[in-house]
């Protein structure tokens, strides 16, 4: 485990979504993300973890693993399930594609729009590990975290 | 998530607070559908207190929109916080769901 | 892993203390703790994790593991290090006892005062696993978490 | 944690915001000690913005108290939030460290 890597494992249940978001956004304060960027991270994590719960484990039991790291100034979030896997990743990533009647097929769309990089490395039987990366833009915007020191007066 | 509902004539007014995601979508859906079944035709969602939404939450809103429309009702949203509006717009939901700055305006429209 | 158990592993570094507290207090919202009780949980976790970092791993590298669960309506928090271990646990738990010159020997005192139960099962070479348990008192006080539904009007 | 310092005559006034724990104790200690070394004898800690403290933070405060006292100075605290006051009291620090409701009162005392 590298110096900055945090690992979280939790049961595949919707009740744990909010906690996964809190952990990811609290961790993200280590970088200089704006409030808007932090909200984007929160949505991306919510989509990845929801997919693990709904699709990966088909709402049955299972463990979702989330890893958080800062690598060269970039936030890296892994979300891993050991569920059913995705037969055709390219197709699954198409906007509006979904295998659930009552869903919108927007999960991957949001992950891609809100993070700088998204890697999905899934296969049937293998489960679905995804990696998302985001670098703070720092182009103004209200700071999400407060700094460490104020100038002396 | 907290949901507060009020029936005004044939309009159901629902004020949503907190987070609308996979863990709360069912409560949202069931509360709204139960109250609609009591005789309301139209639906006004006040989203002023909504602090988080993702595609599961947007899906639940779209589901209510379809249900209300199928029965010939109108559904609109009011007082949508900027971050939520951004997701409504990215999801395409904004194209079908009219949004108003204030609840009173939304109620008047119906 | 039982249905409600959340596992977090992080490097033994002071930077991770705030995150450990955020995770524990966010998890604690599953029970009906007051704001004051939530602050107590936060202090207890901070003491346990600080001990792992300072004493367990002597400020060197290592992994701290935190487990969170709700068992029969009681919050259970495990903090585990695989560091040097404690030769005499009873002595270490005495108020004001410390092996560090600049510390106050208050860590275990706070853990005991702020949680209902504290178990320390340490031995040299074995590392130090501690278990803390707390049940919400529900005797008034401002709620820490907001409820799920409001009555219809 | 954020720390803002101001020297008024021979008094160092330090306003602490955020969390004082093992990760911030060193910054607290170094900032205060550096400013004290610039010639201040007394120390007033305004803790109004302190949102969290544990035994590491209390130890850092006690350390400053000892340092100031050894050099014949006085150290007091002002505007201590209730949860922080509770820990000051549980730790026994309250027995040596006088606390005042307002910064002005604390400054006047010195
Ligand atoms: N973790 C996963 N495990 C298995 N299948 C997945 C996983 N994530 C996504 N998928 C598949 O990819 C499809 C598209 O996902 P997504 O874009 O998030 O939309 P949605 O969740 O609305 O279906 C899903 O319908 C599902 O078939
Ligand atoms: N995780 C640990 N690993 C090894 N030794 C520990 C650990 N936790 C506590 N101790 C020992 O117990 C003593 C008392 O701990 P505590 O009451 O937290 O006070 P303090 O941290 O101020 O020393 C420590 O000084 C240390 O010797």
Protein model, in words:
The complex is a heterotetramer, with 2 copies of chain A (153 residues) and 2 copies of chain B (110 residues). Chain A has 153 residues and is α+β, with helices and mostly antiparallel strands. Chain A has helices at residues 17-28, 35-56, 89-92, 107-114, and strands spanning 6-11, 63-71, 74-81, 117-120, 128-134. Chain A has a 5-stranded antiparallel β-sheet with strand order 1-2-3-5-4, with helices on one face. In chain A, helix 2 (35-56) packs antiparallel against helix 4 (107-114). The radius of gyration of chain A is 16 Å and the shape is globular. Chain A starts with 5 loop residues before the first strand and ends in a 19-residue tail after the last strand. Chain B is an alpha/beta fold and 110 residues long. The relative contact order of chain B is 0.18. Chains A and C meet through strand 1 and helix 1 of A and strand 1 and helix 1 of C. Residues 47, 51-52, 55-56, 81, 83-86, 92, 97-100, 103-108, 128 of chain C line the site of one adenosine-5'-diphosphate (ADP). One adenosine-5'-diphosphate is lined by residues 47, 51-52, 55-56, 81, 83-86, 92, 97-100, 103-108, 128 of chain A.
């Amino acid at each position: 485990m590298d110096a900055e890597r945090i690992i979280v494992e939790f049961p595949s249940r919707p009740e744990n979504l909010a906690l996964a978001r809190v952990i990811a956004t609290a961790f993200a304060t280590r970088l200089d993300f704006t409030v808007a960027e932090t909200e984007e991270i929160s949505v991306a994590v919510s989509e990845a973890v929801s997919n693990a719960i709904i699709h990966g484990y088909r709402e049955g039991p299972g463990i979702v693993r989330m890893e958080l790291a800062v690598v060269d100034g970039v936030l890296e979030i892994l979300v891993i399930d050991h569920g059913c896997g995705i037969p055709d990743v390219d197709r699954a990533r198409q906007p509006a594609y979904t295998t659930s009647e009552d869903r919108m097929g927007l999960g991957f769309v949001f992950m891609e729009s809100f993070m700088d990089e998204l890697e999905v490395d899934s296969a049937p039987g293998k489960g679905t590990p995804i990696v998302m990366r985001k670098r703070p833009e720092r182009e103004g915007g209200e700071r999400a975290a407060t700094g460490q020191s104020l100038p002396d007066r | 998530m907290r949901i507060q509902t009020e029936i005004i004539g044939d309009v159901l007014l629902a004020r949503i607070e907190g987070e609308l995601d996979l863990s709360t979508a069912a409560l949202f859906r069931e509360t709204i559908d139960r109250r609609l079944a009591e005789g309301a035709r139209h639906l006004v969602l006040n989203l002023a207190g909504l602090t988080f939404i993702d595609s599961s939450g947007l899906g639940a809103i779209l589901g209510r929109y379809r249900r209300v429309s199928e029965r010939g009702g109108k559904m609109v949203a009011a007082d949508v916080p900027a971050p939520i509006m951004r997701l409504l717009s990215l999801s395409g939901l904004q194209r079908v769901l009219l949004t108003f700055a204030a609840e009173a305006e939304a109620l008047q429209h119906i």
